[in-house]
UniProtKB/TrEMBL annotation:
It comes from Paeniroseomonas aquatica. Its EC number is 6.1.1.2. Homodimer. It catalyses: tRNA(Trp) + L-tryptophan + ATP = L-tryptophyl-tRNA(Trp) + AMP + diphosphate + H(+). The lineage of its organism: Bacteria, Pseudomonadati, Pseudomonadota, Alphaproteobacteria, Acetobacterales. It comes from the Bacteria. NCBIfam families: trpS. This is Tryptophan--tRNA ligase.
Length: 332
């Protein structure tokens, strides 16, 4: 079985974007791939996190992943800081990656905003840590949203340069696995910005923990234009908000925007938003109930994560120790 690795930051409550773009696609992989999924707390602190909230969010994220269908017995599920191999390999990659490569990363530009001088050095080298996450397991497939494609290309550049610099074929080439339906869910307030768990506006996103009334309200308030829904996807041109809402219903229903428009094309947004809110509530409420149940027994959740970390370390430790040997570090 091919090995897949993917991670998610405990930088807030998981959103519908994280769910449709990533988590939901991870679930079937447990049967087809050797699957490793990680709550990436080292990545989360590249922007300030309140320590108490980070701890709570890390557990919440783990509970959300299990509630969405990740089974700690069928995949390896763990917290990044519990497996030291990630940080060790990331340092080596900091010394392999070139500044010019990092300067091109659009996520850094988006997240650092205008005040780049004040961004953390960690945010800048975030892609090197992400490369280490994947290469520490010699994973070859990485399921991510399409916003992460550029980081995966960089991870391949780093692997190639490492192999070249040390005269080995040690790190394999990795391939992104990108979902086509709802690959990128956009903000409910601005169709040109992706939905993000750390966006300042809670109205911009659906959190997996939002109750029925909150979901209905957020969808009702979602930005749209005055035109009715187009009859065909070609009518989305210049209408990013319409494209987004239709994409969300298609994603939730495991269908295509074409199929959604065959049913709802020509309707006004008022009526369509009601259908969408109802579908979201029906889809998310069982996940929320399971998440709450898991969070009631923190001891059991922590034990599952500890076991996941042991299994992850058993794979990553020999790979990263070999990388250190190749670099010329003395054995411990
Ligand atoms: N809006 C989105 N649409 C589709 N996929 C998305 N992902 C994130 N947002 C969307 C995918 O979720 C996975 C985990 O992402 P992450 O938590 O590691 O970091 P992120 O991409 O930076 O996600 P957020 O929600 O925007 O977090 P913050 O606000 O902390 O930066 C990835 O596979 C990503 O593609």
């Amino acid at each position: 079985m091919q090995r897949v690795f993917s991670g998610i930051q405990p930088s807030g409550i998981p959103t519908l974007g994280n769910y449709l773009g990533a988590i939901r696609n991870w679930v079937p992989m447990q049967d087809t791939h050797e699957s490793i999924f990680c709550v990436v707390d080292l990545h989360a602190i590249t922007v300030w996190q309140d320590p108490k909230e980070l701890a709570a969010q890390t557990r919440e994220m783990a509970a959300a992943l299990i509630a969405c269908g990740l089974d700690p017995h069928r995949c390896i599920l763990f917290v990044q800081s519990h497996v030291h191999a990630h940080a060790r390999l990331a340092w080596i990659f900091n010394c392999v990656a070139r500044l010019g490569w990092l300067n091109r990363m659009t996520q850094f530009k988006d997240k650092a905003g205008k005040d780049r001088e004040s961004a953390s050095a960690g945010l800048y080298v975030y892609p090197n840590l992400m490369a280490a996450d994947i290469h520490a397991y010699h994973a070859v497939k990485v399921p991510v949203g399409d916003d992460q494609k550029q980081h995966l290309e960089l991870a391949n550049d780093i692997a190639q340069k490492f192999n070249h610099d040390y005269g080995v074929e040690f790190f394999p080439t990795i391939e992104p696995m990108i979902q086509t339906v709802a690959a990128r869910v956009m903000s409910l307030r601005d169709g040109s910005k992706k939905m993000s768990k750390s966006d300042a506006s809670d109205q911009s996103r659906i959190n997996l923990t939002d109750d029925a009334d909150t979901i209905a309200l957020k969808i009702r308030r979602a930005k749209t234009d005055p035109e009715p829904l187009p009859e065909h996807v070609s009518g989305f041109e210049g209408r990013p908000e319409a494209r987004n809402l239709v994409g969300i219903l298609a994603g939730i229903g495991n269908t295509t925007p074409d199929a959604v428009l065959r049913e709802h094309g020509g309707k006004g947004f008022g009526a369509f938003k009601e259908v969408l809110a109802e579908a979201l509530v029906a889809h998310l409420s069982p996940i929320q109930a399971e998440m709450n149940r898991l969070l009631e027994d923190k001891g059991a959740l922590d034990a599952a994560l500890r076991l996941g970390a042991q299994r992850a370390a058993a794979i990553a430790e020999p790979i990263v120790t070999e990388a250190e040997r190749l670099v010329g570090f003395l054995p411990r």
